Amino acid sequence: MKKLKVKTITVVVAALLLSLNANVFAQSGIGRGDGRGNNPNQQMGYFCNIPDLTEDQQNQIDKLRIAHIKEMQDIRNQLGEKKAKLQTLQTADNADMNEINKLIEDMGTIRIEKQKKAAAHRQAVRNLLTDEQKVYFDTKRRGSGAGMGKGCGFGHGQGRGNGLGKGSCRRWN
Fold it and tell me: Which pLDDT tens digit goes with each residue over 103-144?
């Protein structure tokens, strides 16, 4: 009888510990995270800290930004199609290495085109700025890379830094 009580208590305690353990591991915790918070204005981060932007400058930058986003979306779509095709080729039973290598080179060409267009866009925005504004534009991160932004990241916990999102942006507060 006493052995039965000890076994029952042991099983109950073990089950309780396992259920508590599952809850602990289900929590995301606080950590670096990816930092891309839920912010509808994250695309605006690259010029919100530039001092003394005129209304005309803001409008011109917005027009450039919208045109750039449309242009980049087409390039991203092309790259996505190539990635999907590459995945299909690489997982085939008889992978054609010539076709795989050609596709990898095509993807490299698209990435080069994407970087060139991004550089041209940055220069077009920069050309609208005064010398003082250019200093801010050139020295401030424009919302790229891990750890930028305020808000919950895709990683573990809160994102860090100031780049994406409202944060301390004077223009959007």
Answer: 999 999 999 999 999 999 999 999 999 999 998 888 875 554
pLDDT tens, residue by residue, 29-83: 555 444 444 444 444 455 667 888 999 999 999 999 999 999 999 999 999 999 9
CA distances from 107 to 22, 77, 145, 147, 157 (A): 43, 11, 21, 27, 33
- What tokens does 130 get? 């005064």
3 state DSSP class of 152: strand
158 phi and psi angles, rounded to 5 deg: -80, 145
Rg (CA), the chain: 25
DSSP type of residue 149: S
CB hemisphere CA count around 151 (13 angstroms): 15
Which of 40, 68, 31, 45 minimizes the C-alpha distance to 148? 45
| Domain covering 2-139: architecture | Up-down Bundle (1.20)
- Domain locations along the chain: 2-139
DSSP H helices in the chain = 2-26, 55-90, 97-126, 131-139
pTM reported for the whole predicted model? 0.57
